[in-house]
Each structure stands twice: as structure tokens, then as C-alpha cells.
Amino acid sequence: MRRPCLLLLVVFALLNPSARAHDIPNARVDRSIQVNLHPGRIKVAYEVSLSELTLTRDLRDLIGALPDGDRGTWFERYGQETAPLNAKGLLVTIDGRPLPLHARGFELKTEEHPQYTFHFEGVIPPRGRLKVQDTNFVSSEGTSRLALRGQGGVVLQGDSLPADVQLIDVQPLWLMTDLEERRSKLAEIDYQTTTRTEPKSEQAQPVLHEPVRKSAGGEKPGRSKPASQPAPGRASDRLSRLLDRSTGFSLFGLILIAFGLGAAHAVQPGHGKTLVAATVVAERGSWLRGTLLALVTTATHTGSVLLVALGLWLTRSSRYESIHSALAMIAGFLIAAIGFWRLGRHLGGYSEHDDTPLPLMESGGSHRNLVGLGVAGGLVPCWDAVALILLAEAIGQLGVGIVLLVAFGLGMAAVLIAVGWMAARCRQILTRFDREVRIEHWLGVAGSLVLCAMGVYLLGSS
């Protein structure tokens, strides 16, 4: 029984958390607001961090079809469009009178996700009661921090938090009290200037990305430094980047790359390979059954991407995690139900002898179970593929996006078919060198247990 034990270890090693291969886009918008009071002037550094998908959808709502080009063009355009809007959404009053802020530019960093630092300015009197309230991104579930600091002889009174926003702890909303949540977006202080007010003429600033007017340093629109390019991420994360014109590949070259990314996605930890391997090992059958399962899984995965992208486009929803959890729950229920049904049959001895052909009704039920497993295995979409379709539609290249998605799916199918073939060969080798009848029984039990564990895991993680 050493070989069956070894096979069990191999099969369970494939059972990795499926969420790793289906990372959910972050729909949050995190903000850090640093307000600095100088003699006669207020300066605000308004930092915003958000996902590329959120950025793209917001920009599409603002300007319609996105400009053709690489992500640097989209990112800079987003900063230009939202800088004056964010300045208006940051409400500042002095002694109850509104104080308008003017957008002076922005800085952009793109490491794991785009991060903007917008710069706002306004003229203030020597003393007064200052109130700052952030009303931007009110529907976002992201974090917010707000700090006020006096410089150059300006003294603040009435605020107990650190003057540097970086010293304020980042806390999710559910860990905050009502007072802490209110303070993260609203602050009131008294201030007064103890030195002579500095001249209102502005000194040259560092070169910033231009919003809609000249910067304080006299830089003209279009002369700002180019946006930095995003750092490479996981294999599937590069799928949506194939739409960038800067890749320099022909359509055929992009198809080959998408095929390779699909194969890499299937190799990543996830439940697709485990599903195919466990199903082939659990029952007697040729590699053709594994091929059918791989194709159904891939077709469902591709269809799920298209349906989720269509639903997000029609509803303008950003509830990515809720959608992911609902699909994972459905998939987990189907896999667990079929796994327990198969486990009961194997424990009852119904699948130990398959020398005679199955009756038509039983054969049809077996194929239905196989299709059901394939549908469940492909139901949870690859979110970078969803982003690919949404981006392609936004820039008017939906046809290209669908072609790349199909190539991506074919790459996945190739790996899953190979996994099914290897699982079938392992089963044949084990049963060839071990003539005991019980080997069939324990292989079926082992594969069914893996399906049960996979389904329960998906239900628990949804």
C-alpha cells in the first residue's frame, strides 16, 4: 500500500488555497491628507491610492472612451481630471466662511498600484477657526488619515493627533469608534500667526504633473514628467497589460503571450489542477474523461469572466469581493455535493468493478457529474481577465480583448489536459503493479475525499 499512500500525498499537495490564483481587485480608495499652515497660506498634500481597475472605471465615467495608449497616458489623464475635483471635495472654512483650494499639480508613483499625491493651496488670514472636511470618495471602504501642522510661525490649538500624517495609525473602519472615524475625515482647530506674513508671491515648486492650468513653477501643460510604469506582478497580472500599445507585438504575438499567461495561470496554486487530478484518479476511465473535464472547466472559466465583466459594466458595481464570495460558495457547494456522493458510492462498493459497460442512465449520470464538476471548477473567474475585458471595452478594443481571453483560456486548457493525462497514467501504473482489488477502492476514496475537502474549503472561505 506504499504507492497509494504516495499518490495521496501528491494529490493533497495539489490542494492549495484557490484564492491565490484568483486575487480579488481592491476596490478601496485609501487617503492620507497632510494640511500645512504657513503664514498667509494653506498647503495640502492629498495622497490617494487605488487599484488600476477602479481608476480605469472612474476615468471612463469622467471622459467617456479612454485615450488609446499605454497606462502612463491613462494615469496622467486621471490625475488631470480628478485634481480639481478632489480640491473641491476637500471642504475648508475659516470662521465659517468657505475657502477655495486650487490644484497646483500632482505626483504619481506606480508600484503595486497607482498612488497620487495632489497638491492644493489657498490664502488664509493671520488667525481664525479652521475646519477641514474630506468629502471625496464617500462610498469607498478605504482608510483615511488627516493631520494638521503649523509651520513658519503658525501655532495650532485644539488637535491632539500627531502633526505628521505618517505618524497616525492606519485602521480599518470596523476597528474605529464613531469619534475616530469622524476625525479621520474632519478636523477643527484654532490657529494664529506669530510672525510677519510671508509675501503671497509663489516660489518655484518641483516639477509636478500638470492638472488643468499652469503650475506655480511656470511649467506648461504637457511638459510634466512622464508617469512611471507599473512594476511587473504575477503572471496573470500581466494579461490586461497586453492592451498597452507600448508592448510592440503584433496581434499574433499577443495571442501567443496570452496563451503562455493562461498556461502560467493554470500552473499557479489553485483548485483547477486538483479538480482534474482528483476526478481522474477517483474513477476508472481514460485520459479522455480528464480532457472533457479540462475543456468544460476552461469554457466555464471563460464564460464566467465575460458574464462578470458584463455585469460590472451594466451595474457599475465595484463589489468584487462579494461577487467572488458568491461564486466561490456556489462552486464549493457543487464540488462538495459531488465529492460526497462519489465517496458514498465508493464506500458502498458500487465503483469497484467496472469491467462491464455502464447502463445508459448511469453513464449519463456520470457524464452529468463530470460536467457539473467542470462548471464548478471554472466558475470563479480570474479577475485580471475580467479587468482585461473591461479595459478593452473602455478603449474600444473589445474584439481584441475577447481574442486574448480565448487564447488565455486555451493556455489554461492545455495545462489541465496535461494534468489529466498524467493523473490517468499514474492510475494505470499503480493498478498495473498492484493487482489487489482493493487498490481501485482506495483510489476512488482518495480522489473523492480530495473533492470533498476542496468543496468544504471553498464554502468556508466564501
TrEMBL record:
TM region(s), chain numbering: 248-267, 292-314, 326-343, 370-392, 398-421, 442-460
InterPro entries with a match to the protein in the record: Ni/Co_transpt_high_affinity, NiCoT_RcnA
The keyword Thylakoid belongs to this UniProt entry's keyword annotation: no
Subcellular location: Cell membrane
Membrane topology field: Multi-pass membrane protein
Gene Ontology BP terms: cobalt ion transport; response to cobalt ion; response to nickel cation
Coarse class of the protein's main subcellular location: membrane
GO molecular function, one term: nickel cation transmembrane transporter activity
Keywords: Cell membrane, Cobalt, Cobalt transport, Ion transport, Membrane, Nickel, Nickel transport, Signal, Transmembrane, Transmembrane helix, Transport
Record field: compositional bias (Basic and acidic residues): 210-222
Region (Disordered): 190-236
Signal sequence annotation: 1-21
GO cellular component: plasma membrane
Highest taxon, organism lineage: Bacteria
Pfam family, one: NicO
Purpose: Efflux system for nickel and cobalt.
Family, as annotated: Belongs to the NiCoT transporter (TC 2.A.52) family.
Protein name: Nickel/cobalt efflux system
